[in-house]
Amino acid sequence: MARIENGRQSVDTRSIRTISSSHIDDESSFGSDSEINGFTSDRQTDKYGFIGGAQQYTEASAQDVPPEVLRQREVKWLDMLSHWDKWMIKRFNKVRLRCQKGIPPSLRGRAWLYLSGGKVKREQNHGKFQELDSLPGDPKWIDVIEKDLHRQFPFHEMFVARGGHGQQDLFRVLKAYTLYRPEEGYCQAQAPIAAVLLMHMPAEDAFWGLVQICEKYLPGYYSPGLEAIQLDGEILFALLRRVSPLAFRHLEKHKIDPILYMTEWFMCAFSRTLPWASVLRVWDMFLCDGVKIIFRVGLVLLKCMLGSREKLKACQGQYETMELLRAIEPRYMQEGFLVREILEVPVTARDVEREHHTQLKRWKKNRGELNFKSPPRMHGARLIILAEPPRRQDLQQNPTILLEVPQPATQLKKDKEERKSKKKKSMKKSQPIEEIPNPYPLLNDFPPPPSDPPAPPPVRSETPETVPQTETHSPHQQQAPPTVLPPAKESPLQRSTQSLSSTEQDTYL
Fold first, then answer.
1. Long-range pairs of 22-27 with CB within 8 A, sequence gap ≥ 24
2. Cβ atoms of residues 87 and 94 within 8 Å
3. What gap in Å lies between CA 471 and CA 483, rounded to an integer?
4. What is the C-alpha separation between 55 and 45, in angstroms, rounded?
């Protein structure tokens, strides 16, 4: 299992495994502080974040997209995400084609959230994840989850450190799901699904993506008894008869039950089987078109490994056949080859549903009713959005980083000149402001003698020559004759009042 989960046993991975101890058990992992401090200078990650290329054959199987093509795809995806509901309802075939070509890495997390319906689910349940995250959780599930944390992609830089941010977020997501669906609880196969999501999005988004995969794409897979995965194993075996009769007869002859070889494939969505470049392309199509993509990948691998007489000569019995399926040849899992083969497999969502009804009738006849009633399966993103139509605000994008686009120098100069001209015009149009009596006299305010009558309120005119001074009476100040001051010698308080009450001038302060 370690070989399949962690990838090829290269020299780098062997040295990493033996840095601090000769073996790794459930209580020790590669992520301890001493181990990290021991090899940080030699640690090299590939472009996906795996140390030493631990997810097998990553570099060899990845297809590099030219930068100019990648920029064009990013622009197209940004446009789609801005008008998601229109694209999904009116131009879904174009969305499917762009998913088959591969979602740009910079937008993959956001696109997955939109495709799965997790964005709408999150907006309609605002604050739900924070509420679940604050609860302690069921101790029965907490213990199991904590034991599984260091097993999920231990050679990925996000999950390499025990107790690091990656493992903490993974724990939060899995614990929240056990509280969200207590009747299902926790299944070990949910951990790699949540880990893949966390590599591309924050914890809250990963939680709602996990909810959508468990409820819409693979309902019943992680429920007690695993009845749904057994039923899909029978569906896969029936579809194999049409795609590769030779492989079907061989497996039937040796009585190899589908549950023996397809459980990890389907429950982990091939995240622990394929090279990482192929995993990402499979997930792009899976979240767009639904579970039929998972069936197609399984059929391609079975056909390639058991679909010719030359292959079957090497596996004459059950043991040899199982060993062959556990060590699939790398050339069949390379990104370009695998994607082409997936698109050519003649299996549709209707074929899967038709076979599902057939196998369900057979199951009820032989075993009785299913113990766990799972919700109906949604075959792809379009059916999900049609089943639960979103509101406009549910699809609105809320960027967390805002950048100011610098203006050209000529534009800046032009804007500066416009501001100066507007300021001059506003200064010409400014008029004297009506005086407000000051209840607190300043030093330069001289109150008139008590015998003088109060001055009449000033009358506003178009061209006033003088502005009357505020009159105050203070018994503590020396009385002096009233003085009329010109506007140029107004007090600081009066000047500040004038500037604040002038809307035009305040715009350019």
1. 26/147
2. yes
3. 10
4. 11
Contacts 24+ apart (CB under 8 A), 44-47: 44/12, 45/157
Long-range contacts of 58-63 (CB under 8 A, 24+ apart): 58/275, 58/276, 58/277, 60/330, 60/334, 61/275, 61/277, 61/278, 61/330, 61/333, 61/334, 61/335, 61/336, 62/275, 62/276, 62/277, 62/335, 63/277, 63/335, 63/336
Contact 167, 206 (CB under 8 A): no
- Single-letter residue type at 427: M
Query: Tens digit of pLDDT for each residue in 62-81?
Result: 678 899 999 999 999 999 99
d(CA 35, CA 18): 10
Give 233's pLDDT tier (boundaries 50, 70, 90).
very high
pTM reported for the whole predicted model:
0.71
CA distance readout (Å), 178 to 163, 186, 194, 381: 20, 6, 13, 25
Q: Which of 156, 129, 150, 161 is nearest to 35 (CA)?
A: 161
The SS3 call for residue 185 is: coil
Nearest Cα to Cα of residue 207 among 131, 275, 267, 154: 131
